[in-house]
Amino acid sequence: MRTRHSSGLIPPHEARQMTIALLGYGRFGQAFADLLHEAGHTVAVFDPHAAVPAALKRASLAEAVRDAQWVVLAMPVPAIGPVLHELKPLLRREHTVIDVGSVKEQPCRLMDEILGADIEHAGTHPLFGPLSLARNERPLRTVLCASTLHPDAARRTRALLESLGCEVIERDAASHDRAMAETHALAFFIAKALVDMGIGEDLSMAPPSFLGLANMLAAVRGDAGHLFAAIQRENPYAAEARAALIEHLGTIHRRLSDVEGAALSIPDMTQPPS
Q1: Which residue did the predictor score with more confidence, 77 or 2?
Q2: Between 181 and which of 136, 155, 186, 237 could a Cys-Cys bridge form, CB atoms 3.0 to 4.6 Å apart?
Q3: What's the Cα-to-Cα distance from 68 to each of 39, 61, 93, rounded to whole Å?
Q4: What contacts 26, CB < 8 A, 6 or more positions away?
Q5: What distance in Å separates the CA atoms of residue 229 and residue 240, rounded to the nearest whole number?
Q6: pLDDT category of residue 138 using cuts at 50, 70 and 90
Q7: What is the spatial distance between Cα 113 and Cα 134, in angstroms, rounded to a whole number?
Q8: CB–CB of 93/119 below 8 Å?
Q9: pLDDT tens digits for range 165-182
């Protein structure tokens, strides 16, 4: 199987059909399993808490990883540490472990500490979800956080992701989490407030300027609303970003009472600075 990506052809040995152990079969795990299956890979799923199709289901961690070349950690971030400890004795040097969590510092640190130099690993964050996949959106952007212990694992992870139709963005874990705090976490924070206020339920008179927010609300409700608490609590920079947003909103709210005119206008970013 030869697969095209942004920089040309992926070598056949990088994009060959493989067995991939998927540990976790939540909403994203299910969607990712479909993506892997469509790319021609064999998917072996272990999740004792989910209804897994019989063709994919494995009865234990050991059975899931036995014939696999890749192991994908698709469980909630707090579960990664315990699973890695249970998984470590089952892994061989030919395994590569990646996680798909929406925060990266903690999973990457745990993989470095528990898997160490023995088992190759890398952190990833697919910036898409079930709705993006259902719409067949391409490219599917994914952040890759390499381990300094395993640069070759990062190269092979990039090749695997690109063979799935992903556009890969390489960042260190801290830069990723800071960026997600200022985008992902804040978007969900704003959306949560609007949803709780009942805003966006009736869009019959919504002006075009609201449609971007409406799309955000739809994505949060339909794609990953269940991840709200995790995105806020597990990102070490999210609280700081929320506090800064609240402070700025409070300042704007107070200034609206006593200031008029250009001082409170929103800059037109489409025009060059004067």
Answers
A1: 77
A2: 237
A3: 16, 11, 12
A4: 47, 50, 74, 75
A5: 15
A6: confident
A7: 36
A8: yes
A9: 999 999 999 999 999 999
Mean pLDDT, rounded, of the chain: 88
Tokens 């969607």, residue located: 31
The more confident residue out of 13 and 128 is 128
| Interval 5-26 mean pLDDT | 68
Taking the alpha carbons at both ends of the chain, their separation in whole angstroms is 54
At 226-255, the pLDDT tens digits run 688 889 999 999 999 999 999 999 999 988
Helix/strand/coil (H/E/C) assignment for every residue in the chain = CCCEECCEECCCCCCCCCEEEEECCCHHHHHHHHHHHHCCCEEEEECCCCCCCCCCECCCHHHHHHCCCEEEECCCHHHHHHHHHHHHHHCCCCCEEEECCCCCHHHHHHHHHHCCCCCEEEEEEECCCHHHHHCCCCCEEEEEEECCCCHHHHHHHHHHHHHCCEEEEECCHHHHHHHHHHHHHHHHHHHHHHHHCCCCCCCCCCCHHHHHHHHHHHHHHHHHHHHHHHHHHCCCCHHHHHHHHHHHHHHHHHHCCCCCHHHHCCCCCCCCCC
Distance CA 144, CA 150 (A): 13
Q: What is the pTM of this model?
A: 0.85
> Per-residue pLDDT averaged across 140-169, rounded?
97
Residue 22, token pair as written in the block: 């998927």
Give the separation between CA 99 and CA 80, rounded to whole angstroms: 9
CB 238 within 8 A of CB 232: yes
Q: Please report where in the chains the tokens 């160490």 appear, as a residue.
A: 116
- Are the C-beta atoms of residues 158 and 144 closer than 8 Å to each other? yes
For 72-116, the pLDDT digits (tens) are 999 999 999 999 999 999 999 999 999 999 999 999 999 999 999
